[in-house]
Amino acid sequence: MKYIIETKRLKLRVMNDNDFDSLRAVISDKETMKYYPKPYDDLGVRKWLEWCINLDKEKGFCLWAVTLDDKFIGDCGISIQNIDGKIVPEIGYHLNKNYWHQGYISEASKAVKKWFFENTDYDEVFSYMNAENKPSINIAISNGMSFRKKYYEDGVLHYVYSITREEYENGLLDFM
Which domains does the chain have, with CATH numbers? Predict the structure, then answer.
């Protein structure tokens, strides 16, 4: 198995068709997807999986499978999103609720941010979320991102966070 990123506890890899059931357990769960318009049905899960696989082939990145001891527990990675009318790279994540509150997504998203700035030419990476999604807001902040703006999409208030390459590189210098 080829891993894109390895952290202290996690390994991230490109998703494959064998991940369908594990991905469905995450993005079909009503509680996990409560800040989305609705949880995904089987067709939606299949499209999500295909989107991730195709994005990796096209861009060299995607929402990767997050594994713990080789068990799929969620996804975290980079996708291209339309955020308030601009097409930008975004760090996104979803975690099986059985693994919440253990720091896995914070660990994974920090590693994804590092990978992003070391392996792409983009100057900024974003995260956006429903304004009521406090856990995602906290992940963005812990990932060194700053609040940039708010906007409405389909009547729902969203917050946008980001970190620039310069901010990332200056932050690295602070730790040296």
Answer: 5-174 (3.40.630.30)
Considering only the C-alpha atoms of the chain, give the largest distance between any 2 of them, rounded to a whole number of Å: 48
pLDDT per residue as tens, the chain (176 positions): 789 999 999 999 999 999 999 999 999 999 999 999 999 999 999 999 999 999 999 999 999 999 999 999 999 999 999 999 999 999 999 999 999 999 999 999 999 999 999 999 999 999 999 999 999 999 999 999 999 999 999 999 999 999 999 999 998 655 43
- DSSP H helices, 30-93, are 42-59
Question: How many other C-beta atoms are found inside a 10 Å radius of the C-beta of residue 103?
Answer: 11
Residue 64 contacts residue 91 (beta carbons within 8 Å): no
Bridge partners of 94, per DSSP, are: 75
- Long-range interactions of 127-131: CB distance < 8 A, separation 24+: 127/90, 127/91, 127/92, 127/160, 127/161, 127/162, 128/81, 128/83, 128/90, 128/158, 128/159, 128/160, 128/161, 129/35, 129/158, 129/159, 130/35, 130/156, 130/157, 130/158, 131/156, 131/157, 131/158, 131/159
Model's pTM, two decimal places? 0.93
Q: Which helix (H) or strand (E) holds 20?
A: helix 20-27
